Amino acid sequence: MWQYIPPLQSIRFVIEEVLQAPAQWAGIPAFADLDADMAAQVVGEAGRFAAEVLQPTNGPGDLEGCRLEQGEVRVPAGYRGAYQAFVDGGWPALACDPEVGGQGLPQLLNAVLFEMLVSANHGWSMYPGLLHGAYETLKSHGSPELRERYLPKIVSGEWLAAMALTEPAAGSDLGLLRTRAEPQADGSLKVSGSKIFISGGEHDLTDNIVHLVLCRLPDAPAGSKGLSLALVPKVLPDGGRNAVVCDGLEKKMGIKGSATCQMRYEGATGWLIGEPHRGLAAMFLMMNAARLHVGLQGLGHLEMATQNAVRYAHERRQLRAPTRPDGVAAEGPDLIVHHPAMRRTLLRLQALTEGLRVVAYRAAQLIDEAEHHPDADRRREAQALAALLTPVVKAFCTQQGFDGASAALQVWGGYGYTHDCGIEQVVRDARIALIYEGTNEIQAIDLVQRKLLPDGGRAFERLLVQMAEVAEEAPPALRPWAEALTAQLQQARDGVAALRAAAVEDPEAPLRVADDVLAGIGHLMLAWAWCASARALLRLAVPEDDARWAPLRHAAQWLMADAAPFWQRVRQCRQPLGWVASD
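Now predict its structure.
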């Protein structure tokens, strides 16, 4: 039976033992009153909401989808009730500033919340998924009047937000964007243009929807440097309906409960956010928050696929497993969980899930440090590391989430291809995460061109030093993990050094292998995560026969070698690509 059981033990282990977050909170005044027990209560309640309230709406919502009726979007049955429970529980305000009605909790706990929401229902989670990014953008760049009018409603979840970037001719290249904004005498704007692929652009979950729209003022220079950002509400302050129209809903492969809208702005009233022609810089606050959440989507899908595959493998009877080398007969020898092929798949899935959780939570922890640490140097260093990891978390976690869900489907065999088993929906839903909020290829380009090359790789070197400390401090019992991590650290240094040298002579060289660089760093982060997790288990004196050791041992034996081919291709970045002929 398809179900979601919140992985509370694993989540607490990562937060408390691997990342030792409570000790970090104690040194940050904003979190000084937060301890492990309080955090565990928050995590437990979030898990209860995800499992008991949200997950039952997932399968039915996928079958029903959204519908457009006379310009109004109706979400699937059960979504409105789940969202009201979400708001009543105070979840939208979790990581927001108490001065505007937030709870002031760490981004790390917000990351935990959204991992569980996506595991339970990805389509539904798209609606509140942009709230924190809209909050950050408006808080940092909005005028006092806009902040006073809109921030409290966004923080409380009374109003939802939409991010309106993409146009038919302007996807990844936002410089081609054509939506216009005409200044008015009263200081407002008249926004006109069309947008596509706008998640939550129209729905009936909230009375108002706050659109953040990229547009061009009349005096805007060409390209992305001429973009401005406007706040365009569905409902105006006087209660009248704004000229914001939903022209259609996309028929999609997955996340069918999420309204992906074609939006039209017909001289809609809006207000400038931030400075003219500086809209992309303001929007990046929203985009970066969204990219972390998209990475968490990959983790959420992987968790859901893995735990259900493990349960099914312990129920499904098919053939008789081979006798174990020690001659001990397995209990229920015809259960597929005892077959080597299935054990290898399931152990790999478990190892990836546990490792990616450490990586994604570490990125969220760095954001907390960058925003709140009392020491300015620590804030700057954390910000550089968080910026480095953001494209890795977005791209690597989503790739592993989709690949892992596809591998998990194999455990069900033919049954997995049917809707009733649940896993085929996870595969369909997971695929979009590799595309939106900047494709994974765009993330790789960002990583190489903006994070590794410009500053001589100082942030990357600092990351390597931090990871090396885990290997250097490892006791003898951790030798397999430490040796594998050390080897990957050297591969990474050699690969990035080759990349920098090649870039001096050939600007295309880094782009030819950008995907390999990102995958190599992703595997390196996994190796660090597994080594740190094994060290934490040793510190807790967890017995060798504890189930938590099995996926880590599998990781040490098999998975840590996965990175070598990526770094080999990076070192060969001087080799040019051929040209693709047209038909």
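Residues 376-412 form the longest helix (37 residues).
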